[in-house]
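Reply to dn_fold:

You asked what the input looked like. This is it:
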Amino acid sequence: MQWLVTVPDDRRARLAPEQYAGNFCAAHGPLDVRRALLEAERCYYCHDAPCTTACPTGIDVPTFIHRIADGNLRGAAATILSANPLGGMCARVCPTEVLCEQACVRNSGESKPVAIGDLQRFATDRFFAADAAPLFARAAPSGRKIAVVGAGPAGLACAHRLALAGHDVVLFDARPKLGGLNEYGLAAYKTTGGFAQQEVQWLLSVGGIEVRTSARLGADLGLDELVRDYDAVFLGIGLGAVKSIGIPEPELVGLGAAVDFISDLRQATDLGAIPVGRKVLVIGGGMTAVDAAVQARLLGADEVTIVYRRGLADMPASGHERDWAKVNGVLIREWAAPVEVLGENGRVTGMRFERTRMENGKLVSGDESFVLAADMVLKAIGQSLDQGGLEGRVELRAGRIVTDADGRTSLPGVWAGGDCRFGGLDLTVAAVEHGKLAAASIDAALRA
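and this is what came back:
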């Protein structure tokens, strides 16, 4: 990122070393045994449980909770991971408040659902801490080889299912580490202790998966060659391009992408070496905006403001995420659209905004404008598909890959899933399900 090289040292190490450790510890700690057992006893173990239906990967929630209550933590982990091989990370980052926990029947008579996400984390954390021995065995070798491009949640889930089915998998990724957004795109306080890589290594331990990193589609890999050399191809390439904010973006020190800021934080060995402004603006309203804004505060920024063009009710970030931002001292300003990036002597100094409003169902800008001072501006208005290597090869719609329900693209022998797929939910758990469905479809096609 630009500021990692050019921002002066006086923007680094704003806090004492012990403050960084405290600020970036796990935001939400795990349940202890006593609390987990008490919470497990609250489950009604419903038949045709709505929580299971609400889970995109179909985890049998009552069964894994019942196994926790019985003290069978390996069995609980097996129930979770058989449906979702990234169940440990999903327990940390899934919006359970709008998925399984929202569907919990206790919501109808009480104000508090069973803490399904916390119990899922309890079971998987205990499993990984014990020995994380393989839970599943591979089928007999099929003699088929599949290329999986992209080692994020969709690609990892697809590779795991294909390997279990007896196929050989070559897993490609553009980055040096596997994990995709789980490794590079989540706030550091959401997944601590190297858990993303621990989960990846367990997933790979099933065998049959060869890893090739620093291999990018369109640059190092050609889709035609992959189709020629492999029995099937799965694309789980995510959304690698950062969207423009729709106005001129001059080359100024301190102006950059929120996803790069978050990635640098996740990979940093010394948080004090990460530069941060005193007054930080984050443009956008999703989870990435909240993650960047909160972490800027935790790095020592004096003022951090999220600016969103619509009202709070329209923000993609959940109410839980918005509350988390406010608790950490982040100001959210709604109904404002950026119109100009301001700079001086090669550095960003602020942004000019126009007030917005809804008029006849459309967002319009008014005549009133205002300026917010800043020495760092982070763009967090979403990402788009990097179409390198895809041009003219697969059907795209709204900038994403069109597939059928099983992940088949318009190009024979090629499947796709995750954020790059048109019509998805842009959630880790949804990407995992895409990978599972595509693996089943690939397996069926190869055995037909």
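Residues 308 and 334 are 5 Å apart (CA to CA).
Hope that clears it up.
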